[in-house]
Amino acid sequence: MKFKHNSASQNPASSDAQLLVRETLRISANLASAPPPSPEAATERPLLQDSRLGGLIEDQHSSLRLICCEEMDGRRWKYFAENDSVRSSGSKQLKRTSIRAVSLQTPQAPVDDLMAFIRAYVVPEGFPDSVTPSYVPYMTWRALKHFFGGAMGVFTTQALLNSAGVSRSRSAPGAVAINWILKDGAGRVGKMLFSRQGKKFDYDLKQLRFTGDLLLEFGAGLELATTAVPHLFLPLACAANVVKNVAAVTSTSTRTPIYKAFAKGENIGDVTAKGECVGNIADLLGTGLSIMIARRNPSLVTTFAMFSCGYLMSSYQEVKSVVLHTLNRARFTVAVESFLKTGRVPTLQEGNSIENIFSLPWQKHRPIVLGPRFKDAFQDPNSYLAVERIFEKEQYIVTYNPTKGNIYALFKDQSKPDDILKAAFHAHVLLHIIHTSNQNAMSLSKGEQEISAIQPTSADLESRLLESYKVTSDLYGPFKTKAKEQGWVMSESLLNPGRARLCEMVS
């Protein structure tokens, strides 16, 4: 059997290349002394592509040991670790920081990457199984309608500006119309790009709704700034329109779930209609009041600041007043922490009122990460092998990485929504145990312990994982029961876990 390699492995300065040369010589010696393999046997030992090693390796004859297999978005990786030459008490040890990822697929063509990028923006996740068959024709006609509407907008806007007498010169109306169309076009681009947030509108709709209102105020401030620097009208107006259209997407996408939370039975249409009517009446009253105030020529900045404060305060109270029955990341944290400290699960009203809504959609969840990549959770292969035995009967693995200061919950490919909830509960239990044991060990001047300051040893970590496993086994059932008694919906997991899954290793 031939051992193939590419040109990248010929760099003598690379330690991976040196390892590859040693493995090549050893495998060649073994093959020279062994009888030629049969064609059937040759097909039983597939070669794996490893870009870091610069070629193909044969895992059965290599000093690298297969420790895990991972799948994400239909693509698979195998993780290898190098055997340690120094072995204690006859047990096989693996070198630290020797984990290597091996892709089982050839690189995708640029066209496939481009199509995947486009699909991420124009179709929902899980398409076409996630939507009804009428989705495609509806979106086709909708796109065509907006195409003609945008084309007509150029001419209607120019006509309106000419009718309003923007300028008496011949060239100014056309230039102003073009600037206005560029402003609107920039806003539509911003609306399209932000729509990629996708399921975040379901997971964290309160947080996104309030963030959208903050962006709306920021856009209004940019529009106000055009009066101070009129020569920067186009860039400021474009930026303001982008921000305000992003806020419009957020408002539109979160409106229906919020109305649904208020509806009892099949009256979501009536609730939505009445809510929009109340909003329009209030908008008309506010417009009339601002017209009367504007006649007195008040300070523009002072008036805008007063209205902005009232708008943001009302927006915050509006979002806080919504009571949702499902458990997203923030509400789940409130429920579990209250249960671990007091033994009771908060009511729907209490959990929603305590929920933190000051979190931006692009912020990463810390210190608990759900569904991370394997390489983010583990750097030492021995720690993974030790943890894997503890969670052999579970569809998830929970660990703590002292280097990054995070608790990671990895999911296996057969995990169900309840497994995700249990893994998240287990992660909070482990976090609670680490905080408690650290507070017992030392007294800190700060009121709150930072998890990044905790540096447990491997033995401490394994004992805490075993303790958390026992606590989770004893308390997860009662937690679910008490949560259902309070009205929380436990069947739907809105914890927004990552897409990476640990799959079974196939030899």
Automatic annotation (TrEMBL):
UniProt-listed InterPro entries: RUS6_N, RUS_fam, UVB_sens_C, UVB_sens_RUS_dom
Residues covered by the Protein root UVB sensitive/RUS domain: 113-342
Residue ranges occupied by any Protein root UVB sensitive 6 N-terminal domain in the UniProt entry: 13-108
Root UVB sensitive protein C-terminal domain span: 345-497
Superkingdom per UniProt: Eukaryota
Family: Belongs to the RUS1 family.
Descriptive protein name: Protein root UVB sensitive 6
